[in-house]
Amino acid sequence: MSSARSVATPDPARSVVEQLRERVAAMEHKPAAQRVPTLPGLADLVPLHAGATYAVDSASLALALAAGASRAGEWVGFAGCADFGAEAAAELGMELSRTVLVPDPGDHWLEVTAALVDVLRVVVLRPPASVDERSAGILDSRLRTRSAVLVVHGDWPRAQARVAVERSSWTGPAAGTGRLEERRASVVVRRGARPPQRAELSWPGVHLVDREVLELRRASG
Amino acid sequence: MRVLVVWCPDWSVVAALEEAEESPRSPAAVLSANVVEVCNGPARDEGVRRGQRRRDAQARCPELVLLPANPDRDARAFEPVLSTVEDLRPGVAALRPGLLAVRAPGSWYGTESDAAATVCQALVESGVWDVRLGIADDLFTAEQAARTAGVQSWEVVPEGASASFLRGLPVHVLQGEGQQGRDLVSLLQRLGLRTLGDLADLPGDAVEHRLGAHGAAVWRRARGQDAALFAARTPPPELDAEVAFEPPLDSVEAITFSARTTAERFVAQLARHQLVATGVRVEAESDGAVCSSRTWLHPRHFGARDLVDRVHWQLQSATVGGSLRARKDSGTVRAPIDRVRFVPEVVEPAAAHGEALWGAASDDLVERGVARVQGMVGFDAVRRPVLQGGRSPAARQALVPWGERAVDLRPVERPWPGRVPGPAPVRVFATPPAAEVLDDAGRTVAVTDRGAVTGEPRRFRLGGGVLPWQPVTAWAGPWPTDEGWWSGGAGLTARFQVVGADGRAWLLVCSPEGWTLEAGYD
Question: In Å, how far is A221's CA from the nearest CA of chain B?
């Protein structure tokens, strides 16, 4: 490989032949469920599939979903995120030299996002107040042909999964003493009509704290 | 080979003034490391000189406009000048921003003086006020001739007269070549050589012996024997493809069907040169005249099918009229078409567009995609985040315009006492919105000069009064800082980490002007 190319290493946990087959299928424009790398803490909870859209309701979740791909050597972009926290992104292992920001795309947000989807692997978008079905459809077809992932911070008409923070708490500060140390958030993932999945994540670093326990607790109570 | 050199003096200042939207006649200087790098005529009249320190320059000329150095900006601003000259004479070589060379037009414009007048007029009409031209046998003499010419004027050194023209010039004209040139000028002056003629009269082997290879090159130049060539842009190979219809066709379907094989040939021909087209102009001719012409850009690169689609859209929009894709430049097709031509406008190496079996898009591809976004929303709207040192989260990062180098960054590795510990906030607001924080008694919480909090924060409100009050479940701080007191800074500010009832944490700042929301941990 030439040095002009940023190379993502294949996922060691899966078979090389299978991954190559996915890649070739994507090049032939066949619908393929190509996997996009995620942070280890999110790999089981929200596996990212190329060509899909994911809606999140918090900036830290959007950042965490993009960070895995960036860490694996992919290019990522943020459109409409005027309040991008570069230091938090770097703490998650995001490579800032492979990050493109369009803080304020204005009225051209759809065109800008479509152009970013063409060349980047993961694009985080904070859309304006309302998004109609048609705009979403245009981006969806573009995502599938370019095998990119769109993470929407906000509402989106057709998302493969919606990830929301239900409850969150911080440890560290009390009444004037200490400092912010660790954040625990219980996250719910909704996929169409399937029953919602819940899990507890912890920051910094995005780790999966417990998932089965929560599910068992739900099943029993 | 006769050479025409176009010189725009003090180009950095011209470009910077234009960017800063200042009057081009105001005295201005471009500074680098607090030293005047370039200054313009009005500033020179006031006594400002290159190499002066900023304070000295301001003392000589208090109304001096100070501008930062930026080589990228200079080159960017020079591009229209290049293309203006290129319209008149192909094969332009940009020597550096503000200086370009081109083979002098022969007898096309009449005499060489007429040619210089034509180029000069075109440049002045395009908005470049101070332009000087020189024509001579070689590059060095032509540049010196341009430097002796007046504003919007030209100097023609006749063929074979280079040596006699250069004889009279003082040696300090060699200063323009950087440190090496300045050292040489100083040495020559100490040796008692005042003009280029004095240098040219010395025996060549003695000059090479005493002054080295650079001195020998200068000696040859001073004798009018400059061998330097400039690399002009080579015209691209002929890649157009066209198809003629006999008899002319008037149905869009028939035209697109017939253009298919030509489109395939066009793409294959590019592929033989290892190229792909990303911008193609489609021209349709009717009765021997171009009646419809439009440039199409492709997000990736054109295949044969894409081209046929573009022909269809262009001709259909022209015939139907008023459809979404119809643009002003597409022109209407009323008469039967007898020729369709594909002209590649932007071609790029195919290797940059190939998809890797492993890994991400190639960096070139990303650069192109981002350039397209810049074309849509503007050069400054696309940013690259970088980290830098500082105390507040907003100061610890910088968003650099894509394609520019980050300059004046504060070092990250210094300790920065007073900065807020803990994980970095995910949301950092560039312009902090106002907030309110109250204590038990309903008074606004403040911080005394000694850094003590006047009351315990109990409830807070974000969004400038739009969002409801929420209780403070936990808080930490204050982290007081007093930044920029030597230049009228914000005064004593203190940062607080505040956790609301919904479990979200915020970084609030208490300054003498009131509370603001600086960042969110979301």
Answer: 24
Q: Are strands B427-428 and B505-511 parallel, antiparallel or unpaired?
A: unpaired
End-to-end C-alpha distance for chain B, whole angstroms: 68
Q: Is B255 a residue whose pLDDT tops 60?
A: yes
d(CA A169, CA B503): 5
Asked if A5 and B505 come within 8 Å (Cβ–Cβ), the reply is no
For residue A24, the chain B residues in CB contact (below 8 A) are: 357
Q: Taking CB atoms and an 8 Å limit, are B497 and A179 in contact across chains? A: yes
CB A16 within 8 A of CB A22: no
Buried b (16+ CB within 10 A) or exposed e, B184-194: bbeebeeeebe
Residues of chain A with C-beta less than 8 angstroms from the C-beta of B375: none
Listed in order, the ranges of chain B carrying CATH 1.10.150.20 are 162-222
* Range B246-268 average pLDDT: 87
Give the CATH class of A31-160: alpha beta
CATH topology of domain B241-352: Dna Ligase; domain 1 (3.30.1490)
Q: How far is B471 from chain A (nearest CA, A)?
A: 13
Give the distance from residue B383's alpha carbon to the nearest chain A alpha carbon, in angstroms.
5
| Distances from the Cα of A97 to the Cα of A91, B93, B387, angstroms | 14, 33, 10
Architecture per CATH, domain B3-156, reads as 3-Layer(aba) Sandwich (3.40)
Question: Does pLDDT of B331 surpass 50?
Answer: no
Of A43-47, A142-146, B215-219, B506-510, where does the model show the most confidence? B506-510
Alpha helices per DSSP H over B335-482 = 363-377
Query: What pLDDT does B330 receive?
Result: 43
User: What is the structure's pLDDT at A63?
Assistant: 93
Above 70 in pLDDT, residue B3?
Answer: yes
Q: Which runs of consecutive H residues, i.e. helices, occur in chain A?
A: 16-27, 59-71, 86-91, 109-119, 133-146, 212-220
Report the pLDDT averaged over residues A9-23.
Answer: 74
Lowest mean pLDDT among A5-9, A28-32, A49-53, B151-155: A5-9
Asked if the Cβ–Cβ distance from A100 to B364 is below 8 Å, we say no
Tens-place pLDDT, residues B100-131: 888 888 778 888 889 899 999 999 998 888 89
Option in B373, B425, B476 nearest A88 (CB)? B425
